[in-house]
Amino acid sequence: MNKAKSVASFFKNVILSLMLIFLLGTTFHGVFSGENFGGSQYHLEPSGHSVKNVIILMGDGFSAGHVATTRWYKGSNLALDEMFCGAIRTYTAESIVTDSAPAATAFACGYKTSDKFLGILPDTVTIPYVDKPSEEERMKPIASVLEGARFVGKSTGLVATSQIQHASPAGFSAHWPDRGNYNEICEQMVYQNLDVVFGGGKKYLLPESKKGTRTDGEDMLQILKEKGYDFIETRDELIAQKKPKVWGMFADNDMSYEMDRQTFHPEQPSLAEMTEKAIELLSKNKKGFFLFVEGSKIDWASHANDPIGVISDMLAYDDAVRVALDFAAKDKRTLVMGFADHGNGGMTIGSTATDATYSKMEPEELLASLKKAKLTGEGIQLMLGDERTPEKIKEVVEKYYGIANLSEEEIAQIQNSKQELNYELGPMMSKRAHIGWTTFGHTGEDLFLFAYGPNRPVGMIDNTEVAYITAESLGFELPYIDQLLFNEAESFAEKIGATLTIDKTDEKNLTLVLSKGEMLVKLPISKDLLIWNDKTYQLNGLTVLAPKTNRVYITQSAIDLVADIFEE
C-alpha cells in the first residue's frame, strides 16, 4: 500500500476534522437539545480540576415517588441526595412519554429519536420542539459518547443488571432500529471493543447449537476469547479479576433483584460490586475512562407496580452510586452523573385510600408492610414454583412477602394468574402500604438530576444535553466522531468509481462488497473488519446497515483503506 498516500490522506482528514469542529462545534449543541423549548436552563459548575473520567449511573424508570419511598424505607439519606442539582426533560421525537431506547440514544448520542431506535436518527418527528432530519439523514447511525471516549484513548465499560443487550446499555454501544433484536445488538457490542462489560445476557452470545439464541450460527463468546478477553460468570471470579479486558455474564438473561439474590443466585455479584470492579479495572488507563452503569430492574418492578422490587433495586442502585461517589471524591477528576431515563408507574406515597387522612399519615402506615417483605414479587414466584395451593400461597406470601391477611379473592388471583406474579402481588402490597400508582406504563414527568465532580451540570437539563456535557468533559466533539464513524458508503463508492453491493448469500450475516476492476473488498455488517485478498484488517468502528433505508455506513478508516487499495 502507498505509505505516502496514506500519510497525505491522514493529514487531509485532520485538516477537514479541525474545520468541522470550528464550523459545528459551537452550533451543534442546541440543534436537538431542546433549547428551543424554553431555552437552556442549566450551567456547568466550575471546578478547580479538569475532567479525566465520566461515570453515568442510570436507574431505569424511577421518579420522585421512588426516591422518597426508598429513603423512608432506608431510614436515612441516600447517596443520591448528596448529588442533587437539577432536573431532566425526557420527551422523544414523537412522544412526550419516552421509552428506554430513545432515552438512551438521547443520553448517549445527543439526539431525540423514534420509539425503539438505538443510536440512530429518527424516522418521523411529531413533537414540535425537535428538528426533523433530512431525507438523506433519516435513520442514519450517529456517534455515541462511548465511541468518542474510545477515540480519544480512554477505556470504556458497560454495567447493567438486565441482559447487557437491553435498551439502555445498547443505546451507548449499538446502532439499530429495533431494541428487541438482541442478536444484532450483541454482535455490535462485541465488535465495539469495549474494555469491561458486566451484566446478564450470556445466551445472546451463543448460537442455538450451544443452547443460545443466535440464529446466525456465530459464537460471540468464542470471538471474545479470540479478541483476548477474559470471560467470567460468578461473583468470586469478579472479585478476583485483574485483567482490564473482561466480559462478565452472570446470568443467561437478566440478573436477580438484589433482595432475591442471596436466596436464589448468591453466585451473582451486586450492582455495587460490578461497579466497583469496573472502576478498578478501567482506572488503570492513565488517559481515563467512560463508564455507564444501569440499575435496570427498577423499571421492571415499576411496570408491575411492585414497591418491594422498586425498593430492592433502588437501594442496590444507590449503593452503586455510593461506590462511584467515593471514587470521585478521592480522584478529584471524575464527573459522576445520575438520573432516570423516564418515570414509570406514577408511584406516589399516598393513594385514594388516604384522601381524607393524608395529613395524619405516620411513617408506620407506609413501612409496616414493606419492612416485612424478604423477597420481591419475582422472588415469591420462584419460591412458589408450580405449587399454588391456597395453603402454600398463604404460607409463602406471609413468610417472604409480609402479607398475612390475603383474602380468598387475592389467593384465587394468585392461583389463577397467567402473568408474572409481581403484577399480582405488587398492587396487593401497594394497597396495604398506601402507595399509589397511575399506570403500569411509562410516564412523562421531569426527573431529578444528580451530579458530582468537575463540570457538573446544575439546573434544568434536556436528556440530549447529557451527551454534550459528557463529550465536552472528556475532550471531544460528537460531530467530529460522527464524521469519523458514519459515512454513507454508496456516495463514497460513486466518488471513486466503485460498485457497491450487499452480499445476501448468508441472510443472517450480510456483507458490504466494494469492487473496482479486479479489486474486491468486503466489510461484514455490524463488525469492525475489512477483508481484502484473504487478509483481515481491524477498523476503528463498525460497518452499519440502516435496514429500513438499505443504506450502509462505513468509517473514515475504511474509506482511507479502500481508497488506497483501489489506487494501487
Describe the structure.
- The protein is α/β, with parallel strands linked by helices and 568 residues long.
- The protein has three domains: 41-347 and 440-484, Alkaline Phosphatase, subunit A (3-Layer(aba) Sandwich); 359-434, Orthogonal Bundle (Diphtheria Toxin Repressor, domain 2); 487-567, Copper Amine Oxidase, Chain A, domain 1, CATH 3.30.457.
- 38% of the residues lie in helices and 19% in strands.
- Strands 1-15-3-14-9-2-8-4-5-7-6 form an eleven-stranded mixed β-sheet, sandwiched between helices. Strands 16-23-22 form a three-stranded antiparallel β-sheet.
- It is globular, with a radius of gyration of 25 Å.
- Residues 1-36 have low confidence and may be disordered.
Short description:
The strands form 6 sheets. An 11-stranded mixed β-sheet has the order 1-15-3-14-9-2-8-4-5-7-6, with helices on both faces. A hairpin with a 7-residue loop joins strand 17 and strand 18 (511-516). By secondary structure, it is α/β, with parallel strands linked by helices.
Please tell me the overall pLDDT.
92
- Give the class from helix and strand content and strand pairing: alpha/beta
> What fold name stands as the CATH topology of the largest domain?
Alkaline Phosphatase, subunit A
Number of DSSP-assigned strands:
23
Overall shape: it is globular
Domain tally: 3
Tally of separate helices: 21
